[in-house]
Amino acid sequence: MTASRKxxxxxxxxxxxxxxxxxxxxxxxxxxxxxxxxxxxxxASVLRIGYGILLLINLVMWAPDLRLWFSEAGLMPLAAGxxxxxxxxxxxxxxxxxxxWPWLCYGVLVAAAVLLTVGWHTRIQAIVVLIGLTSxxxxxxxxxxxxxxxxxxxxFYLALCPAGWAFSLDARRRKRRGTDVPPPIPWGLxxxxxxxxxxxxxxxxxxxxxxxxWTSGHALxxxxxxxxxxGKFPVPGFLFETLWVTKLLTWSVLALEWGLPVxxxxxxxxxxxxxxxxxxxxxxxxxxxxFLFHWLMILGLLSFAEFxxxxxxxxxKPAVAAPSx
Amino acid sequence: MTGQTQRLLVNxxxxxxxxxxxxxxFLPSSESGEGLKDGVNTALVFTGLWQGPWRLYGPEVDKVxxxxxxxxxxxxxxxxxxxxxxxxxxxxxxxxxLARHMNYYGYLLRAGEPAFDALCAYLAHTMPHPQGKxxxxxxxxxxxxxxxxPSPTERVVPARPYLxxxxxxxxxxxxxxx
Lengths: 325, 178
Known about the structure:
The complex is a heterodimer. Chain A is mainly alpha-helical. Chain A has helices at residues 3-6, 27-35, 42-62, 66-70, 78-83, 101-118, 122-139, 146-159, 169-177, 189-208, 219-223, 238-241, 243-263, 270-287, 293-301. In chain A, α7 (122-139) packs antiparallel against α8 (146-159), α8 (146-159) packs antiparallel against α10 and α13 crosses α14. In chain B, β1 (64-74) and β2 (79-83) form a beta hairpin.
């Protein structure tokens, strides 16, 4: 049975009896069906690999400036760093003041990122990555933006997913031992979905409440004149010089951010919403310099897909495979 | 552990986590909810799971382009000048490599005196004397200037980096500790 055909069934029980109408189901039943739906756990492994690659790109970009950002000889000595971050924010980088300490911490984090990507003791690596990222971000909060929050949250969610189930050294070890383990229920994938929905909904609320540049339709007018984050690749000038077009674009962003948290969860609209959301992020990625934020959002969006839908080209027939591989 | 127990534990975790997430992300700061939010906030910050509300250029987008300048004054009164990158002249690929630098300069004004002091101290230690002499640094004057993008209701400016900067304003004066 393919994963997509299994979608909607729960861990302990099969589909509800045919003579019971959905309206008769209680909240608990609906909840359990949602959380414990049988999904192909290989999807969690795909997210793990994608996450690992993005994390490694992020870490490689830190390397040339590690001393500048995280050492006592750099732009943010520990004492200054502590003044701009929450007093409870922990960082292992403050434990030792030696010049080599940030490099050792960095080495451990890179090693954990590599091992997470190849799936060696996956859960442990995800937790080490979470601790490492938290430490580096708390050490110099001036560098942190939304993508760093996603990096941390996704590491936590990966630790709760069967992310090492497939395409991993953990899976190879399991096969070699010949242990016949039933495929796990990847309930942790729901956390990715919730995170993506929360991100859209929260920003929609922030942008809509009160009189803002988003409700007035002027937000993208300003964004398109910023010299750092905007202007990655050429964009037709009329989009941001004709005011009604700019307003339409601005309101479209707002409409998407309100609509996606709902449409991504509904069966009839899920696929279309997923494609629209991915195109939306790719468009911003084309126009703006926001490093890895949009790639992380796209990765999170993939948690709304089923493993069999992640094939290229999309019209190729899905492989019929048990999710235990 | 039985499947039923496992399911109960997962549900308990999810109920707690979702409640905390909702408080963290959606509960606005107010006096009545401050204690609850503070408690949740502390726990989340400590565990590395804090996220707060997602603004993503909201509710108000950035409307200024910024430049920073530091004048490093040496004991012999010679001045070496440092400026932050002119982002309008930086290629997309280079901006990708300098993403953290963009974050740093974007946050610098909000970071305030601890960050100004650290930047000045760093420049005092790293800026070479213009004539290559081994002379100590006396002090550093950190300034900034901004180009505030005019409102489209007043004037629609061309869709390219807005670079009509105001005059330099002094941000911080740093003196070498003797």
